[in-house]
């Protein structure tokens, strides 16, 4: 079982495209996102596991498109004003895990607005729209026809880039061989990599130690050879 780090992030997230690490696991999704505003029917779903970078890409697109951002998992009081969305770019985050903020009927109407009066919709989710649950037949047909761009789990290139950015944001300069050491052991998640950087930052400061493999082994544990789930 892989080690999991459950620490709050100390650095504010940044969503700039220049900060996004491109590799084979996300290049196709990036190209499809960049095809905007020529998405089929003005709609696209950006799909990937937690920590894969889909929120990063989605928020970068939202800034470019001046999109209204809807958190589908929010409370009822965060429900969008559907009439005000007509003709606008809309980002629906976590559309596959809809809560009280976004009913099935509301999502159906948002999808119908895409392609009308310049409107466009980007949705994010952890699984493909074909697997999203709904009891609304019309929404089911829209989801089945929705074009999806897939981001796979982070590979070594992405994880190392995330770690380098995390340490740079903290003004830290680890030993160069720390990166391959961490990449070979961390879970395939950008969020977990940032949490590990937080933990090592704190440990280096508290123990007045250099940021290197020896410290990482003490703090994170030397779990080389352990199998991931």
Mean pLDDT: 87
Describe the main β-sheet briefly. 5 strands, parallel
Estimate percent helicity. Answer: 25-40%
| Portion in strands | 5-15%
- The beta-strand count equals 5
Q: Tell me the span between the first and last alpha carbons.
A: 5 Å
Helix and strand element order: HEHEEHEHEHHHH
Quick summary:
By secondary structure, the chain is α/β, with parallel strands linked by helices. It is built from eight helices and five strands. Helix 3 (104-113) links the parallel strand 3 and strand 4.
Kindly describe this structure.
- Strands 2-3-4-1-5 form a 5-stranded parallel beta sheet, sandwiched between helices.
- Mean pLDDT is 87; it is low at 1-11 and 223-229.
- Helix 5 (156-169) crosses helix 7.
- 34% of the residues are buried.
- Helix 3 links the parallel strand 3 (89-93) and strand 4 (120-125).
- The chain has 229 residues and is α/β, with parallel strands linked by helices.
- The radius of gyration is 20 Å and the shape is elongated.
- 37% of the residues lie in helices and 10% in strands.
- The protein has 8 helices and 5 strands, in the order H-E-H-E-E-H-E-H-E-H-H-H-H.
- It has helices at residues 27-34, 54-65, 104-113, 137-144, 156-169, 178-183, 190-207, 213-220; strands spanning 43-47, 68-71, 89-93, 120-125, 148-150.
Descriptors for this entry?
elongated, 8 helices, disordered N terminus, disordered C terminus, single chain, 229 residues, alpha/beta, five-stranded parallel sheet
Protein topology:
Elements: H1 27-34, E1 43-47, H2 54-65, E2 68-71, E3 89-93, H3 104-113, E4 120-125, H4 137-144, E5 148-150, H5 156-169, H6 178-183, H7 190-207, H8 213-220
Parallel strand pairs: 1-4, 1-5, 2-3, 3-4
Helix pairs in contact: 5-7, 7-8
């Amino acid at each position: 079982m892989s080690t999991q780090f459950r620490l709050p992030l100390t650095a504010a997230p940044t969503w700039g495209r220049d900060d996004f690490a491109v590799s084979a696991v996300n290049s196709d999704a990036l190209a499809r996102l960049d095809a905007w505003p020529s998405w089929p029917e003005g709609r696209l779903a950006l799909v990937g596991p937690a920590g894969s970078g889909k929120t990063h890409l989605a928020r970068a697109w939202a800034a470019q498109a001046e999109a209204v951002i809807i958190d589908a998992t929010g409370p009822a009081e965060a429900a969008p004003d559907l009439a005000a969305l007509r003709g606008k770019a809309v980002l629906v985050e976590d559309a596959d895990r809809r809560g009280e903020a976004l009913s099935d009927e509301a999502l159906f109407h948002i999808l119908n607005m895409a392609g009308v009066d310049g409107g466009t919709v980007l949705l994010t989710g952890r699984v493909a729209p074909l697997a999203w649950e709904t009891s609304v037949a019309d929404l089911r047909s829209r989801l089945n026809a929705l074009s999806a761009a897939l981001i796979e789990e982070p590979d070594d290139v992405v994880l190392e880039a995330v770690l380098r950015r995390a340490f740079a944001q903290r003004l830290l300069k680890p030993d160069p061989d720390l990166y391959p050491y961490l990449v070979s052991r961390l879970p395939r998640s950008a969020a977990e990599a940032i949490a590990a950087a937080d933990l090592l930052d704190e440990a280096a400061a508290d123990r007045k130690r250099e940021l290197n493999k020896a410290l990482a082994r003490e703090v994170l544990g030397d779990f080389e050879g352990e199998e991931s789930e």
